[in-house]
């Protein structure tokens, strides 16, 4: 088994220490940082994402795999920057105003990072204007809004409106999700996309960003 395949396999199993060591080994073997990222780490997260969608693995397995990916990424980040490898896009992710639930939002952040995006985590209880401001500051192409309450999901509309008011429609797309959110609601408020779970959020971010 190649070192890249070993990285993928150990990431799926959530073995952070082994992933870290294998990434160091791959670097020592002079494998390109972009290949270590795409063919090792990201392919592991993509497999975990697919299994999560099919309910073959659950939240804890995803969190453990994401921790292993982080361990590998810590080694790789400086090398990727030095090699000029660009992220697939930048996403500002936050839980909307009035809402303090962040477990799903954090999973979405991890899956997006696992798909190759740069994440700006805006946190919880985020004002719509704050999301827009962070998108501007970080030159983001996407805003991801999460809501878990029927009383706060309406604040997603304010995010869409804040993006419009800032003249950023088209340049910055808005994707939404969370337990009470539906595609019909996304259509109603004019969001650019809806994803039912964190793995689908990564697929949607790629689609909205026009990348594979
Ligand atoms: Co709250 N809570 N809660 N809560 N809480 C729910 C959501 C609730 C359904 C429980 C219930 O009554 N059965 C209910 C909402 C009812 C409703 O509006 N329909 C509820 C309520 C009422 C409340 C309070 C009002 C309770 C009170 O104080 N009276 C209060 C509100 C506080 C506030 O936000 N202002 C409250 C507080 C809390 C805690 C703080 C105690 C805690 C949150 C801790 C935390 O997040 N750090 C909490 C929890 C844990 C829950 C439940 C039990 C679990 C939520 C969760 O983390 N799920 C929840 C009941 C339940 O869902 N069974 C409940 C796991 C997580 C992985 O799933 O977040 O759905 P989820 O994320 C999924 C997808 O939805 C999707 O991907 C994720 C992974 O696949 N997704 C996205 C999420 N965001 C996305 C964004 C995307 C795309 C996909 O694109 C950007």
User: What is the CATH homology-level superfamily of the largest domain?
Assistant: Cobalamin-binding domain
Q: Give the overall average pLDDT.
A: 94
Fold-level CATH name of the largest domain: Rossmann fold
Which architecture of the largest domain would the CATH scheme give at its second level?
3-Layer(aba) Sandwich
Query: Strand pairing plus helix content: what structural class?
Result: alpha/beta
Q: What is the radius of gyration computed over CA atoms, rounded to a whole number of angstroms?
A: 17 Å
Fraction in beta strands: 5-15%
- The helix/strand series, from N terminus to C terminus, equals HHHHEHEHEHEHEH
- How many domain regions? 2
Query: What molecules are bound to this protein?
Result: CO-5-methoxybenzimidazolylcobamide
Catalogue the unreliable spans. Answer: none
How do the strands line up in the largest sheet? 2-1-3-4-5
Describe the secondary-structure layout:
Elements: H1 3-12, H2 16-28, H3 33-53, H4 59-82, E1 90-96, H5 103-114, E2 118-126, H6 128-137, E3 142-146, H7 155-165, E4 173-177, H8 183-189, E5 193-194, H9 198-209
Parallel strand pairs: 1-2, 1-3, 3-4, 4-5
Helix pairs in contact: 1-2, 1-3, 2-4, 3-4, 4-5, 5-9, 6-7
The structure holds CO-5-methoxybenzimidazolylcobamide.
What does this structure look like?
The chain is α/β, with parallel strands linked by helices and 212 residues long. It has 2 domains: 3-82, Methyltransferase, Methionine Synthase (B12-binding Domains), Chain A, domain 1; 90-209, Rossmann fold. 57% of the residues lie in helices and 13% in strands. It is built from 9 helices and 5 strands. The chain is globular and about 50 Å long. The mean pLDDT is 94. CO-5-methoxybenzimidazolylcobamide (B1M) is lined by residues 59, 98-105, 107-108, 144-146, 148-151, 175-180, 195, 197-198, 201.
């Amino acid at each position: 088994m190649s070192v890249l395949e070993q990285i993928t396999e150990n990431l799926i199993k959530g073995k952070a220490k082994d992933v870290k060591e294998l990434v160091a080994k791959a670097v020592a073997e002079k494998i390109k940082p972009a290949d270590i990222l795409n063919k090792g780490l990201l392919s592991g997260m993509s497999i975990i994402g697919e299994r999560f969608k099919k309910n073959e693995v659950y939240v804890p397995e995803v969190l453990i795999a994401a921790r292993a990916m982080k361990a590998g990424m810590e080694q790789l980040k400086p090398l990727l920057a030095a090699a000029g490898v660009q992220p697939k896009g930048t996403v500002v992710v936050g839980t909307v105003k009035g809402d303090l639930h962040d477990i799903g939002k954090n999973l979405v952040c991890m899956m997006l990072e696992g798909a190759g995006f740069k994440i700006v985590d805006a946190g919880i209880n985020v004002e719509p204007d704050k999301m827009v401001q962070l998108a501007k500051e970080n030159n983001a192409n996407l805003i991801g809004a999460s809501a878990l309450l029927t009383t706060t999901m309406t604040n997603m509309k304010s995010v869409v409106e804040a993006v419009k008011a800032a003249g950023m429609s088209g340049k910055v797309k808005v994707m939404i999700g969370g337990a009470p959110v539906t595609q019909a609601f996304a259509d109603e408020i004019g969001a650019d996309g809806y994803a039912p779970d964190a793995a689908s959020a990564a697929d949607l971010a790629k689609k909205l960003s026009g990348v594979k």
